[in-house]
Sequence to fold (344 residues):
Amino acid sequence: MADLKLAQQLSLKCVHCGFCLEVCPTYRATRSEVHSPRGRIAAVVSGALTSSGIETCVYCRKCEEACPSGVEFGEIMSAARRPSLEQIMVHRILEDPLRLYNAARLAKMGLPLQVARRVAQITPEPTLPPEYSDPDPELILFAGCIAPVFFTSTVLRALGFLRQRYRVRLINACCGLAHYAEGERERALTVAQRLGDAAQGKPIVSLPSNCSSHMKAFRQLGVEVEVYDFPEFVELMRLPLPKKQLGLTVHEPCHARLAGLNRYVHSALERMGVQVVEMADPTLECGAGGGYIFEQPELSDEIMEAKKKEVAATGCDTVVSTNFACSLALMRMGFTPIHLADLL
Ligand code: SF4
Ligand code: SF4
Fold:
């Protein structure tokens, strides 16, 4: 449910300085004020919620990092947006990986919907989500929504690695980030509560890093869960890692960066002896943005073009990406994305 008053109140902090413009991927792609953080805030303040700029925000929150006034841009977008029927449909599909599997199969068969055509174009062949639970599990492996269907081997690798030391239950589910980003705030809370209930007080080790970041903020929604991003857990527990003679580059997903999670990926790779060729800006937005990659194909592809040049400049084909929507974007750019778990 949109909360325009809250969005307008939070917008009052904006002093229109424009420091956020050049970090914004949609502004860089369009050079249009409408598609900039400042332009979006102006639309919210004037109540023009049908402005196309409100729809085209990737919700990467890079503008928050650049803003000297502490504008909570993510909250403004989440409170101001009214999800379309198509977005609500995508959210419901993401809530159940089995539903996502069936929807992806229909899309691959040629379902005549724009969003389905895009899914067919950019996703690998879907596989049935794996199920697993040890008796009396002591921790949860949270695989998210995309990974169990499109990156099943990564999920199984992570599961196998954790099972060497722990009794594990695998949960394939949605964290509600897409809902929250696109204005379905009440449903995002329902999804968070459902996940909190399913975890039954057990620590959650989460594979998709942007979901980890969102779940770490569940407390603000009134839901208590103990969450670790997968590389964070590996590093905090100092789990033994294999040595690897490899050269690759690392993509830093936007929400994981906001939560300070990308440093654990780097430290794990360092312990493994992997040679990382740094991008000039590893945080450059990839154009995925959860449902964005399916819902805004033209702008998403334009944002990918800039990222493609950034990755290509490293000379690496393999890119570590701990977020699976980003991995879909990197695949579309022609690279080979891998999760840290794929190296274990
Ligand atoms: S959001 Fe922040 S950085 Fe952007 S124009 Fe407003 S005050 Fe300046
Ligand atoms: S969240 Fe990202 S896309 Fe949206 S205005 Fe901020 S920087 Fe631009």
